[in-house]
Structures are given as structure tokens and as C-alpha cells.
Amino acid sequence: MTQEIEYNDAMTTMLELIWGTGFMAPGGDGNIANLMDGLDVRDLRILDIGCGIGGPAFLLASKYGANVVGIDIESQLIEQAKLRVGKLGLDSNCEFVQVQPGPWPFPDDSFDVVLSTGVIMQIENKKEIFEEALRVLKPGGSLTAYDWMKPEGDYSEDMRYWFKMERLTYSMKTFDEYEAMIQGAGFVDIEMSDRSDWYRQRVQEEYDEIRSELYPRMVELLGKQEADHFVENWRSMKVVCEKGDVFQGYYRARKADGAD
């Protein structure tokens, strides 16, 4: 949900090839499984922050039985999501809304779950996002999200090189900084989880795939120059994941209800 268009057609094509149809965040359906671990969302109303082209929403509706509203500020992503939802027959379970930075166009206490997959790490004003998440959640509702997180101190040179390869804007924070922001927004029962080991294994698998069986398809879809760029992008991502320059952070929290 960055304010400028960063996810062009080449980027979304590549991400789908690696992570699955409609997915734009690491791990694809495995990532959603991590986010849903221990949650029963059947017939519940979920807000997906930074929904992209709809992959998480489609899976949450079809596999988990949820009703999902996806929001994003990039109009071309919302349009793609709207085109896909009809083809999948999920119109009654998924809605996609383009929003602007700032307050969301939803009333207080209107969602059971607020979810985000690798988006809040790109937003500078995280405090506003967490405050809005709390506002739109029903009492007792849950926030469940995933972001890349950083260790203490400045970014390493390897991280800066990876950012260059990514062509995306990041505003990463530490686990402690996230926890403080979530608590400051008013959430309770905050849980922080480092699942870096899971993605370190996955990123190696992805890197192997794009250098071998996926590479001809990448060249066909993107051209050799772009295909080679993404191979180098994944190599640099593998380096920072293996070095511990970036962590796979999951976090969950709850909006207090009358019993708290």
C-alpha cells in the first residue's frame, strides 16, 4: 500500500510465478496458513490490508470460509483483483476497494479480523495503520499479520543492495518496535513470532526453482533481462535471510472486549 505504483506487471507476474496465483508476499498459501494458525474464521468478516491482486482473499474465502474485504491504494492491483474474483466465482465472499492513505472508509467495530501479509513493512506511518486496525475491529477481534523485520542498527550493505534489486520501498522496524507500536495503538494479548527458519528454507527452494525449471517460463513472460534481474534479486534476498539481516516476523493481537 505504498503511495506510488511499485508493483508493475513484470513484478506481479514474477511474484505469482514464484508464490502462486494472486500472491504477492513470501510463502503464498504457506504464509496464510501461518497467519490462520489457531484461528477459525469461517463466516467471519476479514479486512485484508494491502490486498494486492487478491491471492490471500481468494484463499481465505475458498479454503477458510471467510468473507473478505481487500483494500489497496494501487488502482491497477484492485482492478486485477476484481477481474479475477468473478472468474473464481467468489464474488459473494470477496470485495475489493481502492483506498487513499489515511482513515479507511469503514465504520467502527465492523470486522472480526484484520489481516496483512508483508505490507505494513512498506508503510512509513505504521502507527496510523495499527490505530485504524483497532478502530475497525469488533471488540474481541484479532489482528494477524506478517512483515519482514530488521535487527537493531543500520541496514547492512547486503540489505541496501537487496532493496535496489527489489525496486520497492521499505520501512522496516525491529520486533520490539512493532510490539511497542501495537501496544501503543491499544491492542492487548500481543504475540510476536520469529519464523525466519521457515522462510530461509523456502527462499533457497525458490532460488533453485527460478534458476532451473522456472527460468524458461520467466524468459518467455518477462524477457531475458528481467528474468536475470529477478534471479539476482532472489540471490540477494537469500543472502540477507541467511545472514540474519532480515527476519520473518509474525504478530497477533486482540482488541479488548467488555470482559478485559
Q: What labels describe this entry?
A:
20% strand; 10 helices; disordered N terminus; Rossmann fold; alpha/beta; single chain; 45% helix; 260 residues; 7 strands
The CATH topology comes to Rossmann fold
Which H/E pattern describes the elements? Answer: HHEHEHEEHEHHEHHHE
Number of continuous helical runs: 10
Strand content: 15-25%
Shape-level CATH architecture? 3-Layer(aba) Sandwich
Number of strands: 7
Mean pLDDT: 91
Q: Tell me the number of structural domains.
A: 1
Largest sheet: 7 strands, mixed
CATH class designation: Alpha Beta
Secondary structure: helix percent: 40-55%
Rg (C-alpha, Å)? 18 Å
Shape: globular
The CATH homologous superfamily corresponds to Vaccinia Virus protein VP39
Secondary-structure-based class equals: alpha/beta
Account of the 3D structure:
The chain has a single domain (9-153, 169-194, 244-254), classed as Vaccinia Virus protein VP39 (Rossmann fold). The protein has 260 residues and is α/β, with parallel strands linked by helices. Strands 3-2-1-4-5-7-6 form a 7-stranded mixed beta sheet, sandwiched between helices. α6 (157-166) packs antiparallel against α10 and α9 crosses α10. The model is unreliable at 1-5 (pLDDT under 50). It has 10 helices and 7 strands.
